[in-house]
Automatic annotation (TrEMBL):
The gene is hpnE. Residues 29-456 form the Amine oxidase domain. Its cofactor is FAD. The keyword Oxidoreductase applies. The lineage of its organism: Bacteria, Bacillati, Actinomycetota, Actinomycetes, Kitasatosporales. It comes from Streptomyces lanatus. Keywords: Oxidoreductase. InterPro entries: Amino_oxidase (IPR002937), FAD/NAD-bd_sf (IPR036188), Flavin_amine_oxidase (IPR001613), SQase_HpnE (IPR017830), Zeta_carotene_desat/Oxidored (IPR050464). One of its GO terms (molecular function) is oxidoreductase activity. Pfam families: Amino_oxidase (PF01593). This is Hydroxysqualene dehydroxylase HpnE. Its EC number is 1.17.8.1.
């Protein structure tokens, strides 16, 4: 880095500029969002990212001619903050939503062979929008389907503001509400494992209720699924970078912050190799452990709580076939270790054959398994799942392992997650792990970035840009 921040006085001379400086540390979705929101309000922003690219936990890399995402990412129509982010970086058209929720669910455990069910919605009001799909869902008995309906209504009645929800686990609540082990596997965990990154028995009732109430029981279209039809890096790195540049943010990658401190006037110093950046506000948008390491003394009442927030892994298994073996954009499965399978062919730039990515959440048991063992397990499973794979040639097989993909959504985690404000004036926290009410998702990251920027702008006496109000209201 060469350029230091300009003296405060000169900034006020720039038309439309507040004469205030902010440094945002961490170029994941939380940090990018904060930087954009602050810059949109006229603050002069420097964004610092340790890695060579923006996007944090949601990124792409090259493997020969293939552009690979580190992990399949999806979002839902109810993810209003992430959708705002997509709009802000002009990426909405590249990550479209389904017109209507439609999830093919293949069960391999049926004695009569593979059986396809679908989770779909109608145009009817909540909760009737799922009624027909549930009534015909073949992977549950009639009695189980009726009980699912009753549990969904009970879930709808839970008050998300009730802190005792976070002290209970979702699995016990489901059992107490008449859900069989099969109903948990074939319905609740099917959705919950992918969104919470934990099975019901390991998940906070508060977070699970939040996901199911918002996604399935708020608005008929809330759970329609969206995903990037381009590599994640195209959105979270290239387009994000373009938006930051246009907004006037100075972005530095390959630059790690080593310490932060403030002086008696409340002015912050951010140390990076070879330079000290000065700022009126600092947003620390890094993972919880890194935040703990960088937080100055006294910034949080009990900083050690950050270290109590557990993490959970996600494994992605990537298979390139010499031909098309999956005819839908994605599917999910029962009676097999395979969780969700996505067709990544077009997004990856593959010209011949088909590239599938298997997204395996809550992968504690498999995350450290050798590639050979995973290959031996997953290729035969894919052949069971997709008859077309039986005669197909596997051109490439590899895995991506994210050991700390998300924070662990365990009961009690809510009391460990800090809000955006710290006790140190001018220092704010952001990150999917902060207290957004959401599990560790892109939505949570963007919401946290908006909250941190909003708090900083209030303290700087800057009006928030009007577009931030709508995101904050939704948040
Ligand atoms: C495999 C996988 C699959 C996922 N699937 C989904 C999904 O389907 N849907 C969904 O919504 N979410 C999903 N997630 C979660 C989602 O990716 C994250 O919640 C979100 O990206 C977190 O963003 P963040 O900005 O909070 O943190 P991060 O992405 O962790 O960003 C923090 C950044 O800070 C940087 N940093 C750390 N220390 C320093 C330092 N000292 N100096 C400078 N920079 C520093 C890091 O390099 C990093 O880039 C998935 C995650 C993974 C890994």
């Amino acid at each position: 880095m060469t350029e230091g921040t300009r003296p405060e006085g000169s900034l006020a001379d720039i038309p439309g500029h507040s004469g205030r400086d902010a440094v945002v540390i961490g170029g994941g979705l939380a940090g990018i969002t904060s930087a954009l929101a602050l810059a949109d309000a006229g603050v002069r922003v420097t964004l610092i990212e340790g890695r060579p690219r923006l996007g944090g936990l949601a990124f792409s890399f090259q493997r020969g001619d293939l552009t690979v995402d580190n992990g399949q990412h999806v979002y839902l129509r109810c993810c209003t903050a992430y959708r705002w982010f997509l709009d802000r970086i002009e990426g909405t058209a590249l990550a479209p939503l389904q017109d209507r929720l439609d999830v093919p669910v293949l069960d391999l455990d049926k004695p009569e062979g593979r059986r396809l069910g679908r989770l779909r919605r109608d145009a009817l009001p909540v909760p009737l929008h799922l009624g027909r799909s549930l009534a015909t869902y073949p992977h549950l008995s009639l009695a189980e389907r009726a009980k699912v309906g009753r549990a969904a209504l009970a879930l709808k009645g839970l008050d998300l503001a009730d802190p005792t929800l976070d002290t209970q686990d979702f699995g016990s609540w489901l059992t107490a509400h008449g859900q069989s082990a099969r109903a948990v596997e074939a319905l609740w965990d099917l959705v919950g494992v992918a969104t919470l990154n934990a099975v019901a028995g390991d998940a906070s009732l508060g977070l699970a209720a939040m996901v199911f109430k918002t996604g399935l029981l708020s608005d008929p279209g809330a759970a329609d699924i969206g995903w990037a039809h381009v590599p994640l890096g195209e959105l979270h790195d290239r387009l994000a970078r373009k938006a930051l540049d246009t907004a006037g943010v100075r972005t530095e990658v390959r630059t790690r912050v080593t310490s932060i401190s403030s002086d008696e006037n409340g002015r912050w110093s951010v140390e990076v190799p070879g330079e000290t950046l000065h700022a009126d506000a600092v947003v620390l948008a890094v993972a919880q452990r890194e935040a703990y390491d960088l937080l100055p003394d006294g910034a949080l009442d009990a900083p050690e709580k950050l270290l109590e927030i557990g993490t959970a892994p996600i494994l992605n298994v990537h298979v390139v076939y010499d031909r098309k073996v999956l005819s839908t954009p994605f599917l999910t499965a029962l009676g097999t270790p395979v969780q969700w399978v996505f067709d990544r062919t077009e997004a990856s730039g593959l010209r011949d054959g088909q590239y599938l990515a298997l997204s395996q959440s809550a992968a504690q048991d498999e995350i450290d398994e050798p590639v050979a063992a995973l290959r031996e397990r997953y290729l035969p499973e894919l052949e069971r799942l997709l008859p077309g794979a039986r005669g197909a040639h596997v051109k490439d097989f590899f895995v991506t392992r994210e050991r700390t993909a998300t924070f662990a959504p365990t009961p009690g985690v809510g009391r460990l997650r800090p809000g955006a404000r710290t006790k140190a004036s001018g220092l704010y926290l952001a990150g999917a792990w902060t207290a957004t009410g959401w599990p560790a998702t892109m939505e949570s990251a963007v919401r946290s970035g908006v909250s941190a920027a909003g708090a900083a702008l209030s303290a700087l006496g800057r009006p928030r840009p009007s577009h931030l109000f709508s995101v904050e209201e939704a948040a």
